[in-house]
């Protein structure tokens, strides 16, 4: 692995300037491209780092690549199911699945980008060992073995795909997610058990109390730390709360960077609770759980779909614990599925960056 982790002890926490407010009237600002204007020139746009994993991070990246070309995804590496889990067990590598999904989300909308997005997402169907393996997983692992460098290999895949951004793992070692779960065994609803593995945690029928990583002090990828420290905005979420969002806060060097960075921080909430993992969670419950795992974390904006918040005042109170303002916007698809619409989410991010960000060159 190239690069060195910055010495965070030398960095001073900077108190953000005035956050401003939402426009009282008018429509949310849309991306430059959506307004028919010219794309922002590289070097005059916000540097954005998005943290997460799975489909939640993919949704965020598909939106963010529409408004900035200076985009880095920092991806969780605790997956232990499916093709990723099999490759991890057999070869001892990082699980490539969430990294692959992030790269696919960064592919452009032209024929080249969409063709490669389909190719790396393609899964083999057979009666043999290749069954359900994703092409992109095999490609990523092959380059890791060839180059011996996680970051260099992912950068090379990104160039092949024409990705609109960079993808980095949050740690260079495979991680195991463990959770304390009340009622994991339905016959013992009051007992708290340790549940091991991201795939199991995501589907637990019980109530997740807390999560931790094994090893409990994993090293962060230096390039990921540097990206967070150098960002204008850091976006956390949406995604599986306990298995994709919170794990980034359990990597000490990454949490230190999130605390020390001068970047503004926006938390994007899910559209609906996730069956099993966050069953029955209200929007403010998501924030309360986040605060339990990272009590020193500060946020600037909490973004939520306006139709998913039954009580804005309660959410405001929960957000104030982080020092954050609440922004409500229509960001869900209109087909009734609980999925983010890339263009609507892009418009919401664009407005937040303009209304809450310090005056930057992209303005």
What does this structure look like?
- The protein has a 7-stranded parallel beta sheet with strand order 3-2-1-7-8-9-10, sandwiched between helices. A 3-stranded antiparallel beta sheet has the order 5-4-6.
- It has 13 helices and 10 strands.
- Helix 1 runs parallel beside helix 3 (97-105).
- The model is unreliable at 1-43 and 359-363 (pLDDT under 50).
- Helix content is 36%, strand content 15%.
- With 363 residues, it is of the alpha/beta class.
- It has helices at 54-64, 82-91, 97-105, 111-121, 135-147, 150-161, 198-202, 222-230, 241-245, 252-260, 283-293, 312-320, 342-356, and strands at 48-52, 71-75, 166-169, 176-182, 192-196, 207-214, 233-236, 264-268, 301-305, 325-329.
- Strand 9, helix 12 (312-320) and strand 10 (325-329) form a beta-alpha-beta unit.
Give a topology summary:
Layout (H helix, E strand, L loop, with lengths): L47 E5 L1 H11 L6 E5 L6 H10 L5 H9 L5 H11 L13 H13 L2 H12 L4 E4 L6 E7 L9 E5 L1 H5 L4 E8 L7 H9 L2 E4 L4 H5 L6 H9 L3 E5 L14 H11 L7 E5 L6 H9 L4 E5 L12 H15 L7
Parallel strand pairs: 1-2, 1-7, 2-3, 7-8, 8-9, 9-10
Antiparallel strand pairs: 4-5, 4-6
């Amino acid at each position: 692995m190239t690069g060195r982790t910055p010495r965070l002890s030398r960095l001073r926490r900077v108190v953000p300037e005035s956050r401003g407010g939402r426009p009282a009237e008018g429509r949310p600002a849309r991306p430059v491209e959506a307004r028919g204007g010219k794309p922002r020139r590289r070097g005059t746009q916000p540097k954005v780092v998005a943290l997460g994993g799975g489909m939640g991070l993919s949704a965020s990246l598909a939106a963010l690549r529409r408004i900035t070309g200076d985009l880095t995804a920092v991806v969780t590496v605790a997956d232990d199911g499916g093709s990723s889990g099999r490759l991890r067990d057999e070869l001892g590598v990082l699980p490539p699945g969430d990294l692959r999904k992030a790269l696919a989300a960064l592919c452009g909308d032209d024929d080249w980008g969409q063709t490669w997005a389909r190719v790396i997402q393609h899964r083999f169907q057979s009666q043999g060992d290749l069954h359900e393996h994703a092409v992109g997983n095999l490609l990523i692992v092959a380059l890791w073995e060839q180059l011996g460098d996680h970051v260099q290999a992912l950068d090379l895949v990104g160039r092949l795909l024409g990705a609109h951004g960079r993808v980095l793992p949050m740690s260079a070692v495979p991680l195991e997610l463990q959770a304390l779960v009340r009622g994991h065994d339905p016959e013992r609803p009051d007992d708290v058990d340790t549940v091991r593995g991201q795939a199991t945690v995501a589907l637990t029928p019980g109530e997740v109390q807390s999560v931790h990583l094994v090893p409990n002090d994993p090293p962060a990828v230096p390039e990921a730390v540097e990206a967070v420290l150098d960002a204008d905005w850091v976006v956390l979420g949406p995604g599986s709360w306990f298995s994709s969002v919170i794990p980034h806060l359990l990597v000490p060097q990454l949490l230190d960077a999130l605390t020390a960075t001068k970047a503004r921080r926006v938390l994007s909430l899910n559209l609906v609770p996730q069956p099993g993992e966050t069953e029955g969670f209200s929007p403010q419950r998501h924030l309360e759980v986040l605060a339990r795992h990272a009590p020193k974390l500060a946020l600037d904006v909490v973004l939520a779909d306006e139709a998913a918040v039954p009580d804005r005042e309660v959410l405001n109170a929960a957000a104030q614990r982080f020092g954050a303002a609440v922004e409500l916007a229509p960001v869900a698809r209109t087909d009734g599925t609980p999925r983010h619409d890339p263009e609507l989410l892009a418009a919401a991010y664009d407005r937040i960056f303009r209304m809450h960000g310090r005056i930057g060159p992209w303005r």
